[in-house]
Amino acid sequence: DYFIEPCKNGVIRFMQDMYFGLISKTGKVIIPPEYERIWELDSGGYLGVCKNSSLVLIGKDGKVANKFANTYILTDSEGGITSKLGKDGRIGVRVVEKGKSKTGYIDINSKKFIEVKVNAVQLGAYSEGKAWFLDSDGTYGYVDTDGNVIIKSLSEPVYDFHNGLALFFKEVENAENESIEIIMGYIDTKGKVVFKSRSKHPFQIDWDEGEDFGGA
Question: Any idea where the domains of the chain sit in the sequence?
Answer without folding.
Answer: 128-208
